[in-house]
Amino acid sequence: MIGLLLLFTPLAAALLVLIGSKKPIFSAMLSLIPAAITAWAYCLFQSGHDFTVDIPWISRPNIHFRIGMDGVAFLLIALTNISTPLILLSVNKVSNSRTFCSLILLMQFALTGVFMADDAALYYVFWELTLIPAYFLLLYWGGENRGKVTFKFFVYTLMGSLFMLIAFIYLYAKGEGQLSSGNLSLLSLDGKEQAWIFAAFMLAFGIKLPLIPFHSWQADAYREAPSQGAMILSGLMAKMGLFSMVRWMIPAVPMSAAFYQPVVMGLCVAGVVYGAVVAIQQTDLKRMIAYASLSHMALMTAGIFSFAKGGIEAAFVQAFAHGINTVGILACAHILQSRLNTSDLSKMGGVRRAAPKFAAVFFVLMFAMVALPLTNSFAGEIVLLY
User: Fold this and answer.
1) Confidence band (pLDDT; 50, 70, 90) for 275?
2) What φ, ψ does residue 81 adopt, rounded to 5°?
3) Where do the structural domains in the chain lie, given as residue ranges?
C-alpha cells in the first residue's frame, strides 16, 4: 500500500494542479505530500518493511505491474521528492503556470516509477514517460533556440531508448517468465549476446548520464531549458543512468560489463578531465554547470564500474549530494538570470554587495559542487577518488 501511495501521489497532484490554483506555491505544497510519504516509508524501511507490489498485467509475455524498493532506489526516490518542492518553489513569472507545474509533477511520478519498477516492461514505460514532460518543458518554455535544441535532445534520447527496447525484447525472448531485476542473472547468454546487449544498454544509459561521446546534447539543453527543466535534467534525470546500470545492465550482462570495464573507465577518466577543463572556460553560468555535471557524472560512473562495494555506495552517495547541489545552484542561477536578464558570468559582478546572504548561499553550494571538506559532496567524492 505504501509503495502505491509513494508512486501515484505525484500523478494525482499533477492532475489536481490542472484544476486548482495556478500559483506555484499550490503545486509545491502538493509535492510535499510525496516527501512526507517518503519520510514515513523511511521509518518502515528501517524496520524491514517489504514494499513489493506484484500484480499480473499482460499474460503474454508475462508482464507484471511489479514495484519494489531497495536502499539505492529509496535514496533516489528521496532525492526526487526532496528536490521537486524546491524546483516548484523556484517557479515565477511563467506562462501557463498550471501546465508547467503539472509537467514537473508528472516528471516526479515518472522518475519514482523508474526507481520503483521491478519489471522490465514497466520500467521501460516509466523510462519513456520521463521524456514527455522533459520534451514539452524544453519546447514550450525554453530559450530562443529551443526548437533546434529540443529536436536534438529528442533524437538522442529516442535513439538510446530504441536500442534499450530491442535489448529488453531479446531478453524477454530468451527468458521463460517474468523479466525482473531479480532473475536477470538466470538468463543464459553467451559472450556475443552479452556484448550486443551491453552495447544497447550502454548507449541508452550513456546518453542519459551523459558520458563522452554521447554528451553533445547536454550543454545546449541546459542553457535553453527553463531553469526548472535544467534542474530536472541535471539533478534528477541523469541519475536514471547510474541507477539503471546497477539495476538492469550489470546483472543482465556481467561478463561483458567486466570485459569492457577498461573501455568504460577510459571514457570516465576522459569525461572527468574534459568536463572540468571545459567548465572552467565557460562564460555562461548554465553551460558551466552542464560541463561540471558531465565531469561529476563520469566520476560516479567510474565508481559503478569499479565493481567494488565501496565504489558503488560512494557513487550513489555522491549522486544524492550532486542532485541537491545542482538543484540549488541552478535555482541561484535562475534568480540571477531573472534579475540581471543574462546568464553571462562576466556581467554578474557585485552580487555580494547587493545581496550578501544570497551570495553566501551561492558560494556554499559552489564549494559543495567542488567537494570541499565539510560539504555534503566530500564523503562520496573522496571515496570515489581513492
Assistant:
1) very high
2) -80, -20
3) 1-385
Does residue 226 have a cis bond before it (omega within 30 degrees)? no
CB 108 within 8 A of CB 34: yes
Q: What is the DSSP letter of 128?
A: H
Q: Which residue has the cell 557585485?
A: 350
- Yes or no: say if 217 and 210 are a contact pair by the CB < 8 Å rule: yes
How is 249-267 classified by DSSP, letter by letter?
Answer: IHHH-HHHHHHTHHHHHHH
Q: 56-90: per-residue pLDDT in tens?
A: 888 777 888 999 999 999 999 999 999 999 999 99
Q: What are the DSSP calls for 347-361, one per residue?
A: G-TTHHHH-HHHHHH
Q: Is 56 helix (H, G, I), strand (E, B) or coil?
A: strand
Which among 86, 79, 68, 1 is positioned nearest to 38, based on CA atoms? Answer: 79
Confidence of residue 242 (pLDDT cuts 50, 70, 90): very high
What is the C-alpha end-to-end distance of the chain, expressed in Å? 41
Strand, coil or helix: 340? helix
Neighbours of 58 (CB within 10 A): 11
Residue 36 CB-density burial (10 A; 0-12 exposed, 13-18 middle, 19+ buried):
exposed
pLDDT band for 187, please (50, 70, 90 cuts).
confident
- Which cell numbers in the block locate residue 323? 542532485
**In 141-178, which positions are buried (b, 16+ CB within 10 angstroms) versus exposed (e)?**
bbeeebeebbebbbebbeebbebbbebbebbbeebeeb
Q: Is 359 exposed, middle or buried (0-12, 13-18, 19+ CB in 10 A)?
A: middle
Give the separation between CA 382 and CA 386, rounded to whole angstroms: 6
Burial of 190 (0-12, 13-18, 19+ CB in 10 A): exposed
